[in-house]
Amino acid sequence: MIRNLRILLLAALAAAAGACTAPDGRNPHPVRSVILIAGDGLSADVVRRNPGALPHIEALCARGASTLEARSVLPSSSAVNWATLLMGAGPEMHGFTEWGSRTPEVEPIAVSEYGIFPGIFGEVRRQRPEAVTGVFYSWEGIGYLYEREAVDENFSADADDEAVCREACRFIAGRRPDLAFVYFAEPDHTGHAYGWESPEYLAMCRKIDSLVGRVVACVDERMDPAETVIVFTADHGGIGTGHGGKTMSEMQVPYVLVGPGIEAGTTIGREVMKYDNAPTIAWLLGLEAPDLWRGRNVLR
């Protein structure tokens, strides 16, 4: 009797799981748009230790599912983690291994028609050819880590987060993109100059929080809330005036998802690694994740 009940329970759970996923693993109810927003070096610690200081990021957490324990890959540095975020696999596969990698230091296990390891922007172009996409960034290093030729609008303004915010909002309002990546170079520069525990770092995090708020307000005003997911995250944290090491202060960052079907005020109930971002975005958009990717959709 007990064995039969267990079998029935397992069958019910399997049926429930199948109802949430198409037979090929794709999302049966995809959204039209994902807006990815990120702050370089914005640590989980600064959110934990300063409640109320970052109201726009905290508001995103309240509106969706979040964790302050999303981990970077090693080393906990910029280029290697941004590549991982956009490519769904670690440095041993995509080949970008350093803080400022412009070309892979390790031969990639595979390359796409764009000449680098397959990433989310290439997959969007391949599987949704009509998609509108844009990338906006204030550190030139980002431009080497994604398929620029697959993207409709690429905007770079070295160390000018205000310009990135302004141009991203213009693009979002005017084009209503399928996928946009909005990258702010701070608070990383300030962390290196004054320390990740300094008042100056917190002040810069407040500034980035305000820019995040402006982008979110634009999305809320101009995009369809029933068809749009906002993602917020970072690449790494820091300790002292540096990063790249193995402490949780360096490795842990926020990861937040806001949108239809995502329960407000909840904690993401599984471990989140940097390489989980691209598969999660692919699933949200109804795309098939490449077999080469090693990350998992954090919403399943």
Structure summary:
By secondary structure, this protein is α/β, with parallel strands linked by helices. It contains 11 helices and 8 strands.
Overview of this structure, please?
It is globular and about 45 Å long. With 300 residues, the chain is of the alpha/beta class. The protein has a single domain, classed as Alkaline Phosphatase, subunit A, CATH 3.40.720. Helix 7 packs parallel to helix 9 and helix 8 packs antiparallel against helix 9. The relative contact order is 0.23. The protein has an eight-stranded mixed sheet with strand order 4-3-5-1-6-7-2-8. Helix content is 38%, strand content 16%.
What is the strand and helix layout of this fold?
Blueprint: H1 2-19, E1 33-40, H2 44-49, H3 55-63, E2 65-71, H4 78-87, H5 91-94, H6 120-127, E3 133-137, E4 153-156, H7 161-175, E5 179-187, H8 188-194, H9 199-222, E6 228-233, H10 248-251, E7 252-258, E8 266-267, H11 277-284
Parallel strand pairs: 1-5, 1-6, 2-8, 3-4, 3-5
Antiparallel strand pairs: 2-7, 6-7
